[in-house]
Amino acid sequence: MFALDVQQLAKVYKGGFQALKGVDLQVDEGDFFALLGPNGAGKSTFIGIVSSLVRKTSGRVQVFGQDLDEDPEGVKSSIGLVPQEFNFNLFLPVLEVVLNQAGYYGIPRREAKVRAERSLRQLDLWDRRGTEMRKLSGGLKRRLMIARALVHEPRLLILDEPTAGVDIEIRRSMWSFLRELNAKGTTIILTTHYLEEAESLCRNIAIISEGAIAERTSVAKLLGQLRTETFVLNLKGSV
Ligand code: ADP
Ligand code: MG
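^ inputs. structure came back:
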Protein backbone atom coordinates (compact mmCIF):
# COMPACT_ATOMS: atom_id res chain seq x y z
CA MET A 1 0.00 0.00 0.00
CA PHE A 2 1.07 3.57 -0.58
CA ALA A 3 1.44 5.84 2.42
CA LEU A 4 0.78 8.68 0.03
CA ASP A 5 -0.75 8.56 -3.42
CA VAL A 6 -1.21 11.91 -5.14
CA GLN A 7 -2.62 12.29 -8.63
CA GLN A 8 -2.72 15.41 -10.78
CA LEU A 9 -2.63 17.73 -7.80
CA ALA A 10 -3.04 21.38 -8.72
CA LYS A 11 -3.18 24.54 -6.65
CA VAL A 12 -4.05 28.00 -7.85
CA TYR A 13 -3.81 30.60 -5.09
CA LYS A 14 -6.20 33.52 -4.80
CA GLY A 15 -4.89 36.11 -7.21
CA GLY A 16 -4.29 33.43 -9.82
CA PHE A 17 -0.77 32.15 -9.12
CA GLN A 18 -0.48 28.45 -9.90
CA ALA A 19 1.82 26.90 -7.29
CA LEU A 20 1.21 23.24 -8.26
CA LYS A 21 0.73 22.14 -11.85
CA GLY A 22 -0.54 18.57 -11.78
CA VAL A 23 1.72 16.74 -9.33
CA ASP A 24 1.75 12.93 -9.40
CA LEU A 25 3.61 11.32 -6.54
CA GLN A 26 3.56 7.99 -4.73
CA VAL A 27 5.40 7.23 -1.52
CA ASP A 28 5.58 3.65 -0.24
CA GLU A 29 4.58 2.72 3.27
CA GLY A 30 7.71 2.62 5.44
CA ASP A 31 9.73 4.83 3.14
CA PHE A 32 11.96 7.70 4.21
CA PHE A 33 11.28 10.15 1.42
CA ALA A 34 12.66 13.55 0.48
CA LEU A 35 10.92 16.24 -1.53
CA LEU A 36 13.80 18.37 -2.68
CA GLY A 37 13.46 21.71 -4.40
CA PRO A 38 14.47 25.36 -4.36
CA ASN A 39 12.56 28.12 -2.57
CA GLY A 40 9.20 28.76 -4.15
CA ALA A 41 9.04 25.35 -5.88
CA GLY A 42 5.78 24.44 -4.16
CA LYS A 43 7.00 22.15 -1.36
CA SER A 44 5.05 23.82 1.46
CA THR A 45 1.96 24.09 -0.71
CA PHE A 46 2.13 20.35 -1.41
CA ILE A 47 2.66 19.51 2.27
CA GLY A 48 -0.08 21.94 3.28
CA ILE A 49 -2.64 20.26 1.05
CA VAL A 50 -1.71 16.75 2.15
CA SER A 51 -2.00 17.76 5.80
CA SER A 52 -5.34 19.57 5.39
CA LEU A 53 -4.01 23.10 6.00
CA VAL A 54 -4.33 24.30 2.41
CA ARG A 55 -7.28 23.58 0.11
CA LYS A 56 -6.42 21.95 -3.20
CA THR A 57 -7.77 23.30 -6.47
CA SER A 58 -7.99 19.90 -8.15
CA GLY A 59 -6.52 16.42 -8.11
CA ARG A 60 -6.66 13.45 -5.76
CA VAL A 61 -4.87 12.78 -2.48
CA GLN A 62 -4.92 9.40 -0.72
CA VAL A 63 -3.17 8.57 2.52
CA PHE A 64 -2.95 4.85 3.38
CA GLY A 65 -5.86 4.31 1.01
CA GLN A 66 -8.04 6.99 2.62
CA ASP A 67 -9.23 9.69 0.27
CA LEU A 68 -8.85 13.33 1.36
CA ASP A 69 -12.25 14.28 -0.10
CA GLU A 70 -14.14 11.23 1.19
CA ASP A 71 -12.50 10.80 4.58
CA PRO A 72 -10.77 14.03 5.61
CA GLU A 73 -10.71 13.01 9.30
CA GLY A 74 -9.08 9.68 8.49
CA VAL A 75 -6.40 11.43 6.45
CA LYS A 76 -5.86 14.08 9.14
CA SER A 77 -5.40 11.52 11.90
CA SER A 78 -2.90 9.47 9.87
CA ILE A 79 -0.52 12.39 9.49
CA GLY A 80 1.71 14.30 11.88
CA LEU A 81 3.10 17.57 10.59
CA VAL A 82 6.13 19.58 11.62
CA PRO A 83 5.46 22.85 9.83
CA GLN A 84 8.12 25.09 8.35
CA GLU A 85 7.03 28.04 10.47
CA PHE A 86 5.65 27.96 14.00
CA ASN A 87 3.21 30.84 13.92
CA PHE A 88 1.29 30.27 17.11
CA ASN A 89 1.27 31.47 20.70
CA LEU A 90 4.87 31.31 21.95
CA PHE A 91 3.75 32.12 25.51
CA LEU A 92 2.21 28.65 25.84
CA PRO A 93 4.06 26.19 28.08
CA VAL A 94 5.52 23.13 26.38
CA LEU A 95 2.89 20.73 27.76
CA GLU A 96 0.02 22.94 26.56
CA VAL A 97 1.45 23.07 23.04
CA VAL A 98 1.23 19.29 22.85
CA LEU A 99 -2.15 19.05 24.64
CA ASN A 100 -3.66 21.60 22.24
CA GLN A 101 -2.52 19.50 19.32
CA ALA A 102 -4.14 16.41 20.87
CA GLY A 103 -7.31 18.50 21.07
CA TYR A 104 -7.01 19.28 17.38
CA TYR A 105 -7.24 15.54 16.75
CA GLY A 106 -10.26 15.22 19.02
CA ILE A 107 -8.45 13.20 21.68
CA PRO A 108 -10.25 13.52 25.04
CA ARG A 109 -8.37 15.52 27.69
CA ARG A 110 -7.60 12.60 30.01
CA GLU A 111 -6.12 10.49 27.23
CA ALA A 112 -4.41 13.56 25.79
CA LYS A 113 -2.45 13.94 29.04
CA VAL A 114 -1.16 10.39 28.84
CA ARG A 115 -0.21 10.80 25.20
CA ALA A 116 1.38 14.22 25.69
CA GLU A 117 3.58 12.86 28.46
CA ARG A 118 4.63 9.89 26.35
CA SER A 119 5.38 12.14 23.41
CA LEU A 120 7.38 14.67 25.47
CA ARG A 121 9.38 11.91 27.17
CA GLN A 122 10.17 10.42 23.78
CA LEU A 123 11.76 13.74 22.78
CA ASP A 124 13.39 14.24 26.18
CA LEU A 125 11.27 17.30 26.92
CA TRP A 126 9.18 16.15 29.87
CA ASP A 127 11.34 18.04 32.37
CA ARG A 128 10.61 21.25 30.45
CA ARG A 129 6.85 20.79 30.33
CA GLY A 130 6.25 24.01 32.26
CA THR A 131 8.60 26.17 30.19
CA GLU A 132 7.07 28.70 27.82
CA MET A 133 7.83 27.86 24.23
CA ARG A 134 9.44 31.26 23.57
CA LYS A 135 12.11 30.44 26.18
CA LEU A 136 13.29 27.33 24.35
CA SER A 137 16.37 27.37 22.12
CA GLY A 138 15.87 26.87 18.39
CA GLY A 139 16.84 23.21 18.67
CA LEU A 140 14.46 22.51 21.56
CA LYS A 141 11.63 24.27 19.69
CA ARG A 142 12.14 21.88 16.80
CA ARG A 143 12.08 18.93 19.17
CA LEU A 144 8.87 20.23 20.70
CA MET A 145 7.33 20.49 17.24
CA ILE A 146 8.20 16.84 16.64
CA ALA A 147 6.70 15.82 19.99
CA ARG A 148 3.59 17.80 19.04
CA ALA A 149 3.40 16.09 15.64
CA LEU A 150 3.65 12.62 17.21
CA VAL A 151 1.06 13.03 19.96
CA HIS A 152 -1.62 11.05 18.09
CA GLU A 153 0.90 8.42 16.89
CA PRO A 154 0.54 9.08 13.15
CA ARG A 155 1.66 6.47 10.62
CA LEU A 156 3.07 9.22 8.41
CA LEU A 157 5.27 12.02 9.73
CA ILE A 158 5.81 14.99 7.43
CA LEU A 159 8.49 17.57 8.20
CA ASP A 160 8.70 20.79 6.21
CA GLU A 161 12.34 21.91 6.12
CA PRO A 162 13.01 20.53 9.60
CA THR A 163 16.64 21.59 9.86
CA ALA A 164 16.66 24.93 8.04
CA GLY A 165 18.72 27.31 10.16
CA VAL A 166 19.60 24.65 12.74
CA ASP A 167 23.22 24.03 13.69
CA ILE A 168 24.96 20.80 12.77
CA GLU A 169 24.87 19.18 16.22
CA ILE A 170 21.11 19.60 16.56
CA ARG A 171 20.69 18.52 12.96
CA ARG A 172 22.59 15.28 13.67
CA SER A 173 20.58 14.45 16.79
CA MET A 174 17.35 15.13 14.93
CA TRP A 175 18.52 12.89 12.10
CA SER A 176 19.23 9.99 14.42
CA PHE A 177 15.84 10.37 16.11
CA LEU A 178 14.11 10.31 12.72
CA ARG A 179 16.09 7.29 11.57
CA GLU A 180 15.00 5.35 14.64
CA LEU A 181 11.38 6.39 14.22
CA ASN A 182 11.46 5.24 10.59
CA ALA A 183 13.11 1.95 11.58
CA LYS A 184 10.20 1.35 13.99
CA GLY A 185 7.76 1.69 11.09
CA THR A 186 6.72 5.33 10.73
CA THR A 187 6.77 6.54 7.14
CA ILE A 188 8.60 9.86 6.90
CA ILE A 189 8.48 12.56 4.24
CA LEU A 190 10.60 15.64 4.57
CA THR A 191 11.10 18.64 2.38
CA THR A 192 14.51 20.15 2.14
CA HIS A 193 16.71 22.18 -0.10
CA TYR A 194 19.82 20.44 1.19
CA LEU A 195 20.82 17.51 -1.00
CA GLU A 196 23.11 16.47 1.85
CA GLU A 197 20.12 15.99 4.14
CA ALA A 198 18.32 13.81 1.61
CA GLU A 199 21.52 11.85 1.05
CA SER A 200 22.11 11.17 4.70
CA LEU A 201 18.53 10.23 5.63
CA CYS A 202 16.34 9.27 2.75
CA ARG A 203 15.88 6.26 0.52
CA ASN A 204 13.81 7.85 -2.22
CA ILE A 205 13.50 11.33 -3.52
CA ALA A 206 11.45 13.55 -5.78
CA ILE A 207 12.70 16.83 -7.13
CA ILE A 208 10.09 19.54 -7.44
CA SER A 209 10.60 22.62 -9.52
CA GLU A 210 8.08 25.34 -10.37
CA GLY A 211 5.15 23.29 -9.15
CA ALA A 212 5.92 20.07 -11.03
CA ILE A 213 7.87 16.90 -10.26
CA ALA A 214 11.05 17.00 -12.33
CA GLU A 215 12.47 13.66 -11.18
CA ARG A 216 11.48 10.72 -8.97
CA THR A 217 14.23 8.28 -8.15
CA SER A 218 16.23 6.65 -5.37
CA VAL A 219 18.76 8.77 -3.53
CA ALA A 220 21.51 6.31 -4.49
CA LYS A 221 20.70 6.62 -8.20
CA LEU A 222 20.50 10.39 -8.05
CA LEU A 223 23.89 10.66 -6.39
CA GLY A 224 25.42 8.29 -8.93
CA GLN A 225 23.94 10.39 -11.72
CA LEU A 226 25.22 13.65 -10.20
CA ARG A 227 28.71 12.22 -9.83
CA THR A 228 28.72 11.14 -13.45
CA GLU A 229 27.49 14.56 -14.58
CA THR A 230 30.09 16.34 -12.49
CA PHE A 231 32.73 14.00 -13.82
CA VAL A 232 31.69 14.69 -17.41
CA LEU A 233 31.59 18.44 -16.74
CA ASN A 234 35.07 18.34 -15.22
CA LEU A 235 36.28 16.34 -18.18
CA LYS A 236 34.84 18.88 -20.61
CA GLY A 237 36.29 21.71 -18.55
CA SER A 238 39.76 20.21 -18.69
CA VAL A 239 39.83 19.85 -22.50
P1 ADP B 1 8.44 26.21 -1.15
O1 ADP B 1 7.91 25.66 0.13
O2 ADP B 1 8.97 25.17 -2.09
O3 ADP B 1 9.45 27.30 -0.92
P2 ADP B 1 5.76 27.32 -1.44
O4 ADP B 1 4.83 26.19 -1.58
O5 ADP B 1 5.84 28.00 -0.11
O6 ADP B 1 7.22 26.89 -1.95
O7 ADP B 1 5.39 28.43 -2.51
C1 ADP B 1 5.24 28.11 -3.88
C2 ADP B 1 4.81 29.35 -4.63
O8 ADP B 1 3.49 29.72 -4.24
C3 ADP B 1 5.70 30.57 -4.36
O9 ADP B 1 5.83 31.28 -5.56
C4 ADP B 1 4.89 31.35 -3.34
O10 ADP B 1 5.16 32.73 -3.46
C5 ADP B 1 3.47 31.04 -3.75
N1 ADP B 1 2.55 31.08 -2.58
C6 ADP B 1 2.70 30.40 -1.43
N2 ADP B 1 1.69 30.66 -0.59
C7 ADP B 1 0.88 31.55 -1.23
C8 ADP B 1 -0.34 32.22 -0.90
N3 ADP B 1 -0.94 32.01 0.28
N4 ADP B 1 -0.87 33.05 -1.81
C9 ADP B 1 -0.28 33.26 -3.02
N5 ADP B 1 0.87 32.65 -3.40
C10 ADP B 1 1.44 31.83 -2.52
MG1 MG C 1 8.42 25.94 2.05
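The helical segments are 43-50, 72-78, 94-104, 109-122, 138-149, 168-183, 195-201, 219-238. Residues 219-238 form the longest helix (20 residues).
thumbs up if we can close this ticket
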